[in-house]
Amino acid sequence: MAKEKTAFRCRECGATAPRWEGRCHSCGDWNTLVEEARRATTRPQHQPAERPVLVADVPLTSGMHRPTHIDELDRVLGGGLVPGSVTLLGGEPGIGKSTLLLQTLTSLARSGARCLLVCGEESAAQVRMRAERLHAIVPNLWLVADPEVQGVVAHVQELEPDVLAVDSVQTLSDVDLPAAPGSVTQVTECANRLVRLAKERAIATVLVGHVTKEGTLAGPRVLEHAVDTVLSFDGDRHHALRLLRAMKHRFGATGEIGLFEMGETGLSTVTDPAALLLADRQRGVPGCVVTPVLEGARALLVEIQGLVSTIDAEAKVMAVRSAQGLDPKRLSVLLAVLEARAKINLYGAHVYASAVGGVRVSEPAIDLPIALALVSTHHKRPVPDDLVVCGEVGLAGEVRQVPQIGRRLQEAARLGFKRALVPASTPDTVGGFELLRVHTIGEAISVTGLAQAAPK
Ligand code: TYD
Ligand code: MG
Q: Which ligand is nearest to the CA of 122?
């Protein structure tokens, strides 16, 4: 008989500990250890499951991608889903994972693949309603609302689908395990069972996994090791743009990103992100700067906005520092650099900075655009319309190189920009494009005509 034992397991990284600890010894997160019963198994006599094969005799998986015919998804997957592979689709609740999944299955079903969707979060009737909205009523797509992994295995044996999707893996449970559904043990065990099933039957499998900020459910971090591909679906729920990235991919590169727009009838692929990101741009307004950012292998033009409002000396209020879509720590550093290196002191003001359009930008190349947006609003002078800006700003006020500047400038040129404010070391890469090379933040401020406040 198997013996019940108690162990503690980290909700975030899955590491185990013999007793409760406030902090996980492996990932260092606080308060993530939860008690879980586990079964001590007696080790069966070892029978190797596989025999070694010569590398040359291993069948090739390249060229086996089954296209989903959703261009942006195929781009990220390097051609499509590979039979026998397991893909984890992670993202915050409400971002559009179920929508993307249903659209993908519909498209695959239309091209002849037998698809089974296990819906744990919604009833089959709810999925049907969504399918109506997405015009996704197709033959070859089966639904089942079964929360048990044993049930899923049985359905797969009966239906023999080419593609299996589970929404979400956190709702699945193994009835033979004492742990609660959604716990790390359950999620990991169920995922492992489905990975084995995918390999045994060459089923392309997609698992949806929620990532919550609090990490109360087992986050995909635990599953990342078990699956072949990890996709992250990301964006701002209040905006239409969604970005799909491959964080791990055993069947292709991870650099590509896919762009989608959430609309009335689901997700559509975005071929020209500038139309979405720069559509409402106001020209000639102080505080607005356009910058080419890199998302994977793609350059996107993003507008950075700044707003500075002076605090009345009488009013005893804390200065607000607000960063939307940007790193608040970078904003604080830039305020210090502006004060120390360019003699522009914004400590007596509320400072707001944002990346427009629901994108989140974390690369250092947006330091200079943020700094210039703030100086521009502070001095009430606009940055020229036809200018894009990029550069990292160091603590000494120096403007530093950014990777892949050529790709960024090409995208700016394509969208009609004529000039770029760039780090001094930037080579001439794009013809017909004027480069304003600067060494320091002070130089950048004077070259763009922002050094003096506009007359009242
Ligand atoms: P959903 O795919 O359910 O997100 P997730 O599975 O990641 O939790 O979609 C979430 C949001 O998308 C929902 O709030 C409504 C919106 N939505 C649309 O705007 N248009 C659509 O056609 C659909 C299906 C959803
Ligand atoms: Mg969902």
A: 2
